[in-house]
Amino acid sequence: MRSDVRKWLLPGGAVAAASRFRLEPIPAERSDDYLATAPVTASVHAELPMPPTAVFDALIDESCFSWLAGVSGFRYDSPHRGLGATRVLLNPLLAVREEFTTYRVGERLDYTFTGMSVPALISAVESYELQPVAQGSTLLTVRVAMTPRIPVPRMIARPLHRAFTAQAVRGLGRAEPTAEFP
Q1: Using CA atoms, how far apart are residues 110 and 140, in angstroms rounded to an integer?
Q2: Is residue 177 part of a domain?
Q3: Which among 26, 40, 43, 161 is most buried, taking Cβ atoms within 10 Å?
Q4: Could you tell me the pLDDT band of residue 7, with boundaries at 50, 70 and 90?
């Protein structure tokens, strides 16, 4: 295997690779508009059997989405958790750098993609809205929007992306954060 490919497959290499191709960040004040109008959008709703603060903690945990095939979790650039914090999604084939643009504990978490290891997207935003419902559960609404570098027909992209997002959300109901965060 070529050494430049091998270094991307290593955890430290993924962090560096996530900045290889810069994406256009979407600021908080434009997130809702972008989530409604981007070329590829998907929304998923799920009721999770835990309170909003526990769901929020699972979303910011390093192991978040590690239940998805090929995802190891996240590596944060600093111990800081909050508005402006950045992290990298760890995957052997793709690394993505994200920056939190909305951070309201137990209510809403948004981030914009700022870099990737491959030139697949121009921009992307993910939004997680949490609402308490009866018996300590949470209604989670996940909205995802992206602008691919190569036009992809919506009739193909939306169902695929929605299915992937739904799989990620289902795992949150079983997630237990591994640490307390400031």
Answers
A1: 13
A2: no
A3: 26
A4: very low
